[in-house]
Amino acid sequence: MTRILPNRRKEAVRRPTDVGKTLARNLLIRALRHADLHHVLRGQPGIIGIVVADPKDREVFVDAGRTLLRSLSKDMLEIELDRIDSAYEVLEFDGGKGKRSNTTESAIRNMLASHVRVFAFASDPAEIPPMFQIAADGIVVPNPVDADALRGALYVVLGRAPNELVDAATGLPLVIIGTLVKPGRSVGQIVRRLRLAKQVEPAPVSPKERREHPCLDDLHGLGEAAEWGRSLARDLTDYRAGRIPWSDVDRGALISGPPGTGKTMFARALGKTCGVSVHVHSLARWQAKGYLNDLLKAMRAAFDEARKDAPCILFIDELDSFGDREKVNERHEQYTREVINGFLECLDGAEGREGVVVVGATNFPHKIDAAIRRPGRLDRHIAIPVPDLEARKGILRHHLGDALPEADLSEVAERLEGASGAAIEQVVRDAKRRARGERRDLGVGDLDQSLPTRLRLSDAMYHRACVHEAGHAVVGCLLAEESGSSPIEARAFREVAPGAPVGSTAFDHRCGVVRTRAAYLAWITVLLAGVAAEELVFGSRSDGGGGSNGADLHQATVLAATMEASLGLGHSLAYIVPRDGAEVLERVRVDASLRRTVNRTLGECLERAKALLRANGPALEELADVLGRRGRVQFDHILRTVLTADRSRAIPVPDADQDSRAEGGQVLRTQTMSKFF
């Protein structure tokens, strides 16, 4: 009988040749140490479950685990040579398709009894049989490959670890890394092969990784921004492969949208989709460095860092913080001018920024200096809207991950009307916390319980909301040719969150049509048709048409004032202020003559809307009735109703006091603020 005694002084040191297998071994050892399973690494008996989600990586981990167990068995003080392989066992639990399909409880008991060291691999902890979990010393999940692990493995195999090689290998499956990184090849050869591999075979992504670090295809409700991002990814791939020059690639874009719509998440997903890093900065971060000269140094350093990492994305948040040199007050004019000039120099200075795509984000695109948005800089403006119904369902599903896979989320998504992506994520997070607190699985009821507080409208309020939106729809349909805008859908909500609108009418604004004075007056008439319908049906109008930016009265006032003070479409040809809503309204506040003219225009348009509705009373009544029953009316129904309704009947005008009693003193707004509830 032959026995092996350790004699490490005579052992030849052999450098490994497989980086992928070396990485897997190192990550496996790291996982065992983190799980406090040091006894296994010291050669003592142990039963370990190892979870590796990706099947390609699992093959490498299984091979590395088998090699590790064999070396640990050989390192024992005394072992029979012909019993080394029987001293350990490697299993794969994979739905019966692994190394051992016979994973019955008795088979597992027999296997554990006959082997002192066992590694069992699975793609999910749930695949590990209960008997094995009970017997196991621990279940470990090796960390994903990071830069430190890559450097360590490269040093072991190649004797060096250049940063460009580490960056090129990051994100690829271990089997690909092991295949392409070979001793004897130059760094340039290896890097080129790794980059090509990323183009033809992107790294697999686990569900958890997909949720925490999504690409554009994983996100919902981004609209045009997602399409632009995918196009940019294709261009960057062609640029890296040398198929197109940098001059053919989009240099950047301005992304805008309400708070919580996912502008920052879009930038990170864009980087993931393009396969490049994202450098996140903001003016506030640069200002934190100190005085103006420190700010400018930090700004230039950010661009320098991005150039060194090209191709990459430089994301600048809250771009409106730079201000507008045309609107800043005298006290801050010099400071603002130097900051913006410095930023413009970085955008297109003498050093250039080949390979650096600049993406700016803002909630207020109209507050950004025009020079920043000129061609060649951030000229492409893409707005991210508040998610629609389908997008809300997609966002819910994304944040739920593997939970509730068969659940119908339509009702929950309906009740999140007007919610941003961030608000929807908060609902899912609260629902999960509720289920965890009660030590049970997540249910749809948890989502319902986590929805924002909702207020149920009285019958009178709801009916008024339906009449209001029906007014917009009818007049919008009648004036579609004149205004250049057609109603798409009218909606009314029986239940609303505090501060949310109780109704809305969406319009399709046609591009490329001539906008004359008549077109502007027609659109103002459509905007005032909601309150006009209320006056006709109830004898008085509520406050549902005003009170906030974006409300009917706000839009109508801005348009009427813009015609007079900016476009030469009013009673004067004089250009007074730019076509900017805030500046136009400020002019209305300080100019009594302009205010009187605007008020007269609004009054005339209101009377026109009432006349149109009076002549189309049956259409208004029918649409309001359908809205009350269904909660929404589509364009086809609106058009059919307006064209076929009996115009011979007039709308009776009720007593105003009777209407006030029916409302019960409650406040109704199509665009409300929470304080009104």
TrEMBL record:
Entry keyword set: ATP-binding, Nucleotide-binding
SUPFAM superfamilies (UniProt xref): FtsH protease domain-like (SSF140990), P-loop containing nucleoside triphosphate hydrolases (SSF52540)
One Pfam family cited in the UniProt record for this chain: Peptidase_M41
Superkingdom classification of source: Bacteria
Any one Gene Ontology molecular-function term assigned to this protein's record: ATP-dependent peptidase activity
GO biological process: protein catabolic process; proteolysis
Gene Ontology cellular component list: plasma membrane
All copies of domain AAA+ ATPase, residue ranges: 249-388
Family annotation (PROSITE patterns): AAA
PANTHER family noted in UniProt: ATP-DEPENDENT ZINC METALLOPROTEASE YME1L1, METALLOPROTEASE M41 FTSH
Family: Belongs to the AAA ATPase family.
Protein's name according to its UniProt entry: AAA family ATPase
Organism: Microvirga aerilata
